[in-house]
Amino acid sequence: MLKILLPSILLLPSMWLTPKKYLWTTALFYSLVIASTSLLWLALPAEIGWSFLNYFMASDPISTPLLVLTCWLLPLMILASQNHLMLEPINRQRTFISLLISLQIFLILAFSATELIMFYVMFEATLIPTLIIITRWGNQMERLNAGTYFLFYTLAGSLPLLIALLLLQNSAGTLSFFTLPYLPPTHLTLWAHKIWWVACLLAFLVKMPLYGAHLWLPKAHVEAPIAGSMVLAAVLLKLGGYGMMRILVILDPLTKELNYPFIILALWGVIMTGSICLRQTDLKALIAYSSVSHMGLVAAAILIQTPWALTGALILMIAHGLTSSALFCLANTNYERSHSRTMILARGLQTLLPLAAIWWFTATLANLALPPLPNLMGELMIITSLFNWSMWTLIMTGLGTLITAGYSLYMFLTTQRGPLPNHLISLDPSHSREHLLLTLHLLPLLLLVLKPELLWGWNA
Amino acid sequence: MLSRLPRLGLALPRSVSVLSTRFVSQSKADSAISSTAVTDPYEPVNQSGHGEVSPFAKNPDFHGFSTDPAEDERNMKVGFFLGISVALVIGGTFIHYLPDHGMRKWARREAERLIRLREKDGLPLIQENYYDASKIILPSSNED
Questions:
Q1: Separation CA A52–CA A433 (nearest Å)
Q2: Per-residue pLDDT tens for B69-127?
Q3: What is the pLDDT of residue B18?
Q4: Whole-prediction pTM value?
Q5: A256 domain-assigned
Q6: For A233-260, how does the pLDDT look when each residue is reduced to its tens digit (9 = 90+)?
Q7: Per the domain annotation, does A23 fall within a domain?
């Protein structure tokens, strides 16, 4: 555990001491070394138990894939940001990379936390670098509004969580993940307990996001620079899912009745945000709403608490992390060339950038959950477990899948197929950097087809 | 009116006395490309890649990393080697050859072994109760 955390912490001073000429090469070098070492976490000896333990950090089958995803994402963020930061003064470049690294440190600590308060502190701590990245390096004036929405939505949800955790600490004496499942059953009968249940979950539902509290997400994803969009879509949303998985252990038996409105909201959100995607003109907003749609499925699955649902949720979280991040990178390649997020301004790109079209095609197919990619496997497990829970959910999930395919194809056909617009007279060809970036997103996704048991969590 | 507040002298914080300069916008007016709405004390170093001169003009082998060709190539090599050859290929091989990830094959073998053992002894394959029923202490049936 420490062999990943300490190098990540020490990356911070090394970014300030590296000479200007080698800054990005060094950052990429070390972050890829850390990412390769993080694959060691996948050598889990036991299916259910905790591994790689120390007093404060441990990994178990649900946190390991998320930890590896976090470590994998840092080099990808560095690759993606390199171009748009080239023009900035060197100290700002160093600051930017330091923010990305500190985000990685907080995320590693959050996913490997063995104690709920530590998880909470790290959950909150990730807000600060993300806020700074969005509001300082975003490209439009709306980024200030976006940062405000992002910060206050998450904080408003998580302050009740702090109080709920402190209450629990008071009554249970400990909040360690090792002992939480073995707490004596609590008599949760009062109204106050129901409010406590909501307080425990609200922060994570806002983070996921659940459809009713999702307004921060399109703003934050769209206004953030590419690294911000990538980390938001790939990892920070999954913090919400992971938190929910951890905390629902102690919330029985209230969950059986209280989760109904949230499941309905989540499933309704799948359809609604999917429909919004069909009407989007802004490419990044389309991908952002698609994230809400996929996360709605994940939220509904985690709330019904069956083994297949949790497995499906975990698989979909990882697969969506890679896919969504890849789509944002592709949108950024468009943005860097045309300086506009409007889809129809940069259409028919398959003729101009055929190699990039391969990546667009693969990422689109992954987004619409093509078999045998893990996107489909996760979605299928979620849909079947929801159907088992109640057969009426099939209408919503089926419609949602249909709309997902619809808007993914709409995005692909608009940006890639059809005639080129008349105003595109000189676009740079795809850089090797962009090809590498997308390879490193999509090849792991394809490799996961071959060994999906890495993502199954607690199930056989 | 506000500019006369400095008459009050040291009673007011210093920032009030420079009121007149704080409200003048210093960012450049609307530019053709997306403008950063933040005051920019540094001039942008080089406008390459933003519609003026493509980096491919100076360096036909531009890989997207840096305008310095040597550093560009070094960065490209680092990225491709560590990203693909080390992380994906070597890492992928490591993951592929992990012995019995999650003890799944062991669980299967153990289950088959136990079934063979129990069938041989004529014992039931699995006990009906998960817990030992004699160890459960139920509360009395009085209202609590």
A1: 34
A2: 999 999 999 999 999 999 999 999 999 998 888 788 888 999 999 999 999 988 888 88
A3: 45
A4: 0.87
A5: yes
A6: 999 999 999 999 999 988 877 778 889 9
A7: yes
> CB-based contact (8 Å) between B95 and chain A?
yes
In angstroms, how far is the first alpha carbon of chain B from the final one? 74
For residue A460, being part of any structural domain is answered with no
- Across the interface, of A25, A40, A433, the residue whose CB is closest to B74 is A25
pLDDT of the residue at B38: 53
Residue A126: name the closest of A66, A172, A177, A41 by CA: A66
> Quick check: B64 contacting A, CB < 8 Å?
yes
Residue A398 lies in a domain: yes
CA distance, residue B1 to nearest chain A CA (Å) = 31
- Number of structural domains chain A divides into: 1
Contact A221, A284 (CB under 8 A): yes
pLDDT value at A414 more than 60 = yes
DSSP structure class, residue A113: B
- The whole domain housing A329 covers 1-455
Q: Give every CB contact of residue A458 below 8 A, 6+ residues apart in sequence.
A: A47, A48, A61, A62, A307, A310, A311
Distance CA(B55)–CA(B9), nearest Å, equals 56
- pLDDT above 70: percentage of residues in chain A: 99
Element (H, E) at B87: none
ipTM for the predicted complex comes to 0.89
Measured between CA atoms, the residue of chain A closest to residue B41 is A89
| Other Cβ atoms closer than 10 A to A197 | 22
Of B33, B64, B66, the CB nearest to A434: B64
B95–A39 C-beta distance less than 8 A: yes
Q: Do B66 and A436 touch (CB under 8 A)?
A: no
Q: Which residue has the tokens 């060339």?
A: A337
| Shortest CA gap B2–chain A (Å) | 28
Radius of gyration (C-alpha) of chain B in whole angstroms: 37
Average pLDDT score over residue span A209-218: 93
| Binary contact (B63, A453; C-beta < 8 A) | no
Asked if A89's CB is within 8 angstroms of B71's CB, the reply is no
Q: How far is B37 from chain A (nearest CA, A)?
A: 6
DSSP letters for A176-190:
BTTTGGGSPPP---S
